[in-house]
Amino acid sequence: MKLALVKLQFRSSHIMIRRAYGVLKNQYKYSQQFKELQIDNVPDLPYHETVPLAWQSFKGTNTIDETKAPMVMLHGILGHKQNFSSVGRHICSISKRDVVAVDMRNHGATMLAAPHDYMSMTRDAIAFVESNFQKPVVLAGYSMGAKVAMLATLFRPELFEKLVVIDNSPVDQPLESQFLTILVGMAYVERDESVKDLRGSSLIRRIDQILAPFEKRKIVRQYLTSSLNRKSTEEDKNSGRTYKVPILNFLKDRTLEQLELWPDEADGLQYSGPVRVMRGLKSPFVTDTNLKRDFPKYFPHVSVTDFNAGHWLMSEQPERFVHQLLAFLER
């Protein structure tokens, strides 16, 4: 993979300084919980600069028009490739193009690896596209995956025909405090011994009881159950983890602060292909200022579709999401 090393190095010291206030603020807010959860004692994840991504095609028995660019979809934090199964099947059936979704590092069936930052995930995504496709693809990303998708098109524009950005912006942006609260709740699930022996509906009920004080929205708690470790492989069975995602490592490594950033390595780069931004008007992640000032710096041919929804716009308005995505793909 031909990526300039100067562009894909680890965070420089001035970025670490930029993070300092958020790190200290969150550390103090949850210091007691971190002690109870023994976060400092969590073993480190193995380091891997690039990891192979697990993936799934949604073409099924559909006839594929080989002249059309395949679409690759990247999920958000705590998600996995199955989040796109309904959307992917509809897009594939109607547009006659192959639709593929991947599991990002530390999610789903993809291996656990440090660091969990945008440059590492971008390397993973680029390597996946290079290895699996012989022509440019449409790249679509949601939330965390949206920033990865933007970065991939900036670093390797020749690999991508179009870009779909779902509710995120190319800027440093604080995540809502609720994201950290959810991680802390999931960490208590990981540390709960009673969970280890439960299965089926009993397991789901117990997890819901633990999470309820941390996340009031039932739809979000239901979404989090999709990240449970189903112990389908020997590695999963032996891991001892309740979730596929390494929740305790994410807290130890303060991964959320990494995900707030937009890497300086992207400065001065542009992707000249068509870009569609899909934003939830009730979500804080794509503002009018972002659209007028920030996107055009990197993406001169950007358009926007607004949804009267929050950050979970694909779940809140699935039919309109598919309709708008198809319109962009086929234009």
TrEMBL record:
Q: Which Gene3D superfamilies does the UniProt record give?
A: alpha/beta hydrolase
Pfam families given in the database record: Abhydrolase_1
Mention any one GO cellular component term assigned to this protein in its UniProt record: mitochondrion
GO MF term list: carboxylic ester hydrolase activity
Q: Which residues form the AB hydrolase-1 domain?
A: 70-316
Q: Which PANTHER family match?
A: PROTEIN ABHD11 (PTHR46118)
Would you tell me the protein name for this molecule? Hydrolase
Give the originating organism: Clavispora lusitaniae
